[in-house]
Amino acid sequence: MRRSARFTRGLAALALGAVTLTACATPPGPQTVRIPFTLTAGATPVQCGTPFSLPGSGGPAVTLRDARLYVQDIALIEAGGTAVPLTLTDSDWQRQGVALLDFESGSPGCAGNAAVNTAVTGTVPAGSYTGLRFTVGVPPALNHTSVEVTPAPLDVVAMNWSWQAGRKFMKVEVNPAGGVRKPDGATAPTWFLHLGSTDCTGNPVQGGAVTCQRPNRLPVTLPAFDPVRQAVALDLAALFRGTDLTRDQGGAVGCMSGPTDADCPPVFAALGLSLTTGQPLAPPQPPVFRPVEAR
After folding, report:
1. Quick one: signal sequence residues (predicted)?
2. Where are the domains of the chain?
């Protein structure tokens, strides 16, 4: 009887060990990731509707009127350099691999409405990640679709670029104190940066394919980025370094991504894009996007 009891206890221990080994062998599930984005002017946080200075510009204070951008191809980078795509969680702010970051709040001096979105969320396989990459832009297959029938976040009329049959990938609009002087002597309140594909041909309404000579999609890689404790900063001081926001040199006020727009060269140089070809420059320019501690 004692031998039988010992044998039974032995079987139970073996069974428990098998369960433990099975549990240890089960691969971990995907981990949820939230990547915050923020706006800065150098080291100073920037909020829509609040005046701020651009370090090193020597110009007057400016007030951010609007800041929005689409990002795609988001991936975390493992220590060995492998990029692992982030599977976005569907919502009104992100769908079909594209997310809209929206910093305007509709407050006084600020465009839009109260709804904002300052982070992308999704899942990746469990692992250790040390970097981040993404592209500012919208994939060609989604870019040239109607805002009237396309689901959010590609249904935002304010991000539609009808004259180029696509989306504004990034818009940053600022109001410098004293306004923007135009060549004819008139003054405009706002200096506009609208980044998007240009020189596009084809009619998507009629089912035709659209091709653009200058894609102007901006790939960004942050090789040292901790997704647990860091955020991505868009540095407006770096973006507008070399740009006189109080003066426009002709055409639509500011930079509309046109290859002959005299206001675009310093902005495109800061972004690391060729104004002539719409392709990334090599070697890369000083980063407009950089990692900062998440707040």
Report:
1. 1-25
2. 2-293
Q: What's the whole-model pTM score? A: 0.89
C-beta of residue 64 within 8 angstroms of C-beta of residue 44: no
| DSSP assigned state of 236 | H
Residue type, 266: P
If DSSP codes are grouped into helix, strand and coil, which group holds residue 36? strand
The answer to whether the beta carbons of residues 121 and 41 sit under 8 Å apart is no
- Residues 251-273 have pLDDT tens digits of 999 999 999 999 999 999 999 99
Quote the CA–CA distance of 129 and 84 in Å, as a whole number.
9
Residue 256, token pair as written in the block: 């509309």
Residue pair 180/246 in contact (Cβ under 8 Å)? The answer is yes
Give how far the C-alpha of residue 87 lies from the chain's centroid of Cα atoms, to the nearest Å.
Answer: 15
184 burial type by CB count under 10 A (0-12 exposed, 13-18 middle, 19+ buried): exposed
* Burial of 83 per CB tally in 10 Å (0-12, 13-18, 19+): middle
Q: Can you tell me the mean pLDDT for 10-23?
A: 42
**Token pair recorded at residue 193:** 């940066």
3-class SS shares of the chain: helix, strand, coil, % to 5? 15, 35, 45
Residue 206 has a pLDDT of 74
